[in-house]
Sequence to fold (1093 residues):
Amino acid sequence: MQQSAPVRGSSRIRLDVDAAGRGDRIFEGATKAGAIAILALLAIIILLLLFESRNIFGHQGIGQFLFTTTWDPVFREFGVFAFIYGTVISSVIGLLLATPVAVGAAIYIVEYAPRWLRSPVSFTVELLAAIPSIIYGLWAVFILGPVMRFHIEPFLQTWFGPIPIVGNLFEGTPIGRDILTAGVILAIMILPTIMAISREVIMQVPDTQRDGMHALGATKWEMIQGAVIPYARAGIAGAAILGLARALGETMAVTMVIGNASTSITGSLFEPGYTMASAIANQFREADSQVYLSAIIAIALVLLVIAMIVNILARILIYSLVGKQSNSSRIG
Amino acid sequence: MQSGNETAAQLATPKASPGVSRHAILLQGDSRYRFRKAFSGIMAAAVAACTVFGVTILWIILGYVLVRGLPALDLAFFTERPMPYGEVGGGVAPAILGSLYLIAVACVIGLPLAVLAAIYLSEYSHGRFGDAVRFVIDLLAGLPSIVVGVFVWTLIVINTGSFSGLAGAVALAIIMIPIVARTVEAILNLVPNSMREASLALGVPMWKTILRVVLPAAKSGIITGVVLAMARAGGETAPLLMTTLGNSFFNFDLMQPMAALPVQIYNYAVAPYADWHTKAWGSALVLIALIGALSLLTRWAVRGQKLGES
Amino acid sequence: MVSRYEELYAAAITGKMDRRQVLKRAFALGLTIPAISALLAACEDDDSDDSEAAAEPDSDDSSDDAEEMVEEDDNEDEEGEDDLDDPDEVESDLDVEQADAFLEDDGWEYEGDDRIEGPYDGESDTLNGAGATFPAVLYSRWFHEYEQVTGVRVNYQSIGSGGGIASISDGTVDFGATDGPMNDEQLENASGGNIFHIPVAMGAVVPTYNIPDLDIAEPLRFTAETLAGIYLGEITEWNDPALVEDNPQLEDIDQSILVVHRSDGSGTTFIWVDYLAAVSEEWAENVGVGTSVNWPTGIGGNGNEGVAGEVVQNTYSIGYVELIYALQNDLGVGEVRNQAGNFILPSTSSVTAAAAAFADSIDPQLRDRIVNAPGEDSFPISGFTWLLAYENMDDEEKGIALTRMLWWCVTDAQRWNSGLGYARVPEEIVDLAKELIQDIKVDGEPIFPGE
Fold:
């Protein structure tokens, strides 16, 4: 486009230039068509989901759909709040468990690890991101679930159960197929996402910051705490939110361990639950009436909107710090 | 984590503003020094422990897949189709072939679109439109895969009147597009402008410059991006549940339901039969091996490229 | 007016029959493993002087005995088509396999001369179906065999009854499968016109429980009222007077009941809640009938196997599953009181009895539900499972393949039913099903090419 400084000379060359100009226009057109197709793709996804979920909003109000917990296909009452609750709680548990570990690992790799160790360690942790969700699910069903049921959950119940308020979180029979187990597997799954981005963000912290703290006689940790973390805070928050975005939309591993039940909200983490994604996975092919089907498509729509909002938020935070060069750091 | 900060703050004057003045006092040797030093050591150990945990959990999961999956692998596992419920024997050959086939078709559908868009973003766009496209690609990358499944079901399964391999491939293509587009754009941006200028100065038109100079220079990076996307698509389960449905027979007709490894793992894992559980682990091992082979292939391809350049 | 099981039980307990005779008879009746364990336990009590077989208290051992009996009974095994079931291939340490082996081929063979054999010119070589998980064990076996009989590859995916109905309505599969008949609204919404229900098997949905203090050989007895009460959350303790009345052994079980139900849409649920609604007005009004309902209480398990799993893992729990899943997982299976007032243990024969009770009033469209059947020996929570096909198809090749496949399912294929824990469809209903199959049309012309 900005090329075509036309070469003056024989008509033959001129012809070439004309041909080249046409070729350029065609080629640019083709690439632009590709770009437009991607815009169109998202638009079609949103419009089609909106269109297909119209029945449910004709059937009952948006408010009832979003904010009630009764999901009753027989009497055609569809309230998704319990699913939203399950999604948010399991994701937040995952986030709370994963973020400290991920940030700690990122700090270790950047600030402590000997140079030769950095690359293999970060490679290994990032390999976690390459393991498919279904394999996490398989592992969680057969290994993590029983460990949670027979060891971790009874332990939590014994130690925290008697404490008021906190104890409510650990009420009920430990069954290993519950919101807590889902949160733990989510934590493992989003660990590499948060770690990779945090590492990148921490590496962006200028050495002058570190030197300044050292010069003041700070210990290494005080240096990290006083100079590195404050500088990287926004980026780490962005990394965590990106991890959250991944957790919100995660389907298979969660479906396999969350228990897929209970549309009532008790507040206990030992309660089986449903996330939006697992509700879709479980019930999509089951929907035997138009309203039911469109209710499930509407869940997909809600999930899409939430995922978009969270993604946008995360990217704003990351870009504000690291700038656009770090695009390649996006994982999954 | 805050307590270290408290220590420093207590040493500083109460009105100390954040920054240098607050920490000046740290220089003074004081009775707190040993505590501060010890605390720093503890935190170093803590972050090291975090790293060890991250690395260990990976090896634990891989270890289980290996130990539990290996016994399932025999010749029949790779050559035969699944047995009826609860019966011992058979294999997952249709699922292995189905997965490879789906990924290949998804590449054919998704790659041209993604690469074209990436070229546009890197070589032509300089304005708001380009930013909008980048933004949309980011949103697509963050789209939960189950939503893609629902979308493809309403778009293709209903309209063609059949669950089909094609629908599954389209779903996988939608998942691959944003990954490929962003990686390829980033790589193309790394190709030095001097190369483009040299080519253009020789009178080579822009489109030829891109195809003959820029893309070859970025070849290794592009392959990396594509393989990343293939690995990701190969492990996707949720969208396939509602598009390809699954098939216990061999099938290479794109318009028919098709088996895929992740779906097979899911079906085997939730069934109550011990032999199927073993097969689920075996299939998981094969899936990981496939993904690992893909990334090794990339590394090999990338290295070959570098040698070619020099 | 006693069931055959109780007759046998009486014979065993009074010492009229010895251990081997009881086993042989029990097997001939198609009784369940818990039932047989109970019978054997009864033998032990009064057979102390029996020199032939030392009393063995372990129910596993009795299964082993049963296995031997199967082999003896099967001497006249017809075509040897059941090489898959060779006990040598079965991993002996798994109860699942034992149950399967125990439930082998009972020697029944379709005797009509209209069998489907060999490939047929002009039929499609693939068919796709999806639906119920309840008969999936049976279907996957059938279609495995069917490919060997005709070369047609029938791909069946068990996604649940709701999914089967939805898929056939959308026309995304060649046939659907369900355990709950489509209701009128669903039939109207089907995209391709009228849908035929072809009954291909019957099964029982059984209350299953895990109370470690009790011997599973002495099944608990449930009534319509107690089951509805438990699932409505009104009966919450195992020693509730309503339960203790029929089960004195529960008096000391001072534990609360953990209710387990299905979390996904399911035909098993349909049959279960259809029964509860048939017997409890409160259930009918507040919860209703469907493939997935809004449960008043309890936790959910995904699929029949998920419910069985939850019951296994949680003591003092109760769930409901298709019979085969309870057998495979060695769970306690309860007796249920039927309309005639008898407590009936679920088995293929008591399910057949339930269908027979409705034999006089069969709906020509074969969409009958058979819960709460009258009959003395009927197990009240029984149901058909159907394959769903369009009356009018547009693809000739598929039409030929599908009608032949359906024909095979209601005839020859029935020989696998009882071996896998399902009851065969009674003959009078098979005849009606054949008429429906012959009614399936392509371009207005019946398409079934004959056997």
